[in-house]
Design a protein that fits this description.
This protein has 196 residues and is mainly alpha-helical. Helices cover 74% and strands 0% of the residues. Helix 2 packs across helix 3, helix 3 runs antiparallel to helix 12 and helix 4 packs across helix 5. The protein starts with a helix and ends with a helix.
Length: 196
Amino acid sequence: MNFLAHIYLSGDNDLIKIGNFMADSIRGHSYDVYPEEIQKGILLHRSIDSFTDMHPIYRQSKHRLHEKYGHYSGVIMDIFYDHFLAKNWSTYSNEKLEDFAENFYHLLKDNYEILTEKVKSMIPYMFARNWLVSYASIEGLQMIMFHMDHRTLNRVDMHESIVELLENYIEFENEFTLFFEELHQHCADKLKELNG
């Protein structure tokens, strides 16, 4: 799962959203310096990643990309799944995607001092290109993939994966729909446990 899904699956708690969003830039137990709700977001993020990586439906999706993109097939698949979430947003939320994104960008600005340096360096691009909304279109996905290629020093041409997406679009979308229902329940259970 990429940024949009992680934020969405955090529920309504703003600090859990922030912790979930920036968790990739926090290693090991270094999260324990953060406020308790941020810590919950980080732990939720790690639970989402573990659940996703081990799930047979996600692995089936990722397998289509593995031969060409190797290690990066997971990165690409996470972005594809965010695309299907954004594209079908009204199925999952009563709030417009544009409003959801704008509210989250404001949340990051209002809590800027909590963010890691890695996240601080990334968010100007995120805001300028409106990544969370961009996931919904193929053109937006291509832009995000080109940015990912730049960040990974063009080790693989991730932007070319749009070809595989379009060739297998119905299969990918059906797999996402089935998987996301299970992930949504997993996150609801995990949040109950964290808030216990």
